[in-house]
Amino acid sequence: MKELLGKQAFISDMDGVIYHGNLLLPGVKEFVAWLNEHEKRYIFLTNSSERSPRELRQKLLRLGLDVGEEHFYTSALATASFLKSQCPGGSAYVIGEPGLVGAMYDAGFSMNDVNPDYVVVGETPSYSYEKILRAAHLVRNGAKLIGANPDVTGPVEGGIAPATGALISPIEMTSGKKAYFVGKPNPLMMRHAQKRLGVHSEDTVIIGDRMDTDIIAGIEAQMDTVLVLSGVTSREDLHKYPYRPTYVLDGVGDIPAFAREGEA
Questions:
Q1: Were 116 and a residue from 56, 103, 112, 154 both cysteine, which residue would form a disulfide, CB within 3.0 to 4.6 Å?
Q2: Is 15 annotated in the active site?
Q3: In whole angstroms, what is the distance from residue 168 CA to residue 147 CA?
């Protein structure tokens, strides 16, 4: 654990690591206080595309945690940045929440439900049969299909909810086209986060609750990884994967707890 505590930078997932829905998880306040006290560089990297960094900051404030906007990076921002590099000034039909729509506008894209360059899908509770029909029609007519992240499910307060991977599946099946996903485990997200932190991979650790996104993304980026069991993965699930995290903890609160034990 001494090696983990000595890392310069921490990239942490949010859903299932920091909170479930509107419930802050145990030990999170202590973890963030430890990061600040020891002047660690950190960023909360979330595959969720629903909220902007400002909204994420406001959400954590409501939960009693004060974290600046500069510490957040979302799959919506990564998606918009990627598409801007591919098709500057393009247009898109977006199925998603304000965090995704706003990121696309900020990247110079216009909204278009007739002949867009892209159909972009993120998490949203307002999914509908009509939107599936429209998206599939546009993709069949030449629009490229983009998913903000490949997650099939995500943790919410009181259970599990369908995420982008599940929502985009009917569009893929109806159109006959496969989506390109920008969020984790796509290395784009990790490179963006590392660039913001300005730290080499050997000095960085990624913390997450999903083996198939967070942990594999960290391994492929040659970072140490921490799997926390506060989200969708249990200890019994580990045998299902051909790779393992560097550390397995009950939650992020274990990190400052270990640090206090070392100082005692």
A1: 112
A2: yes
A3: 7
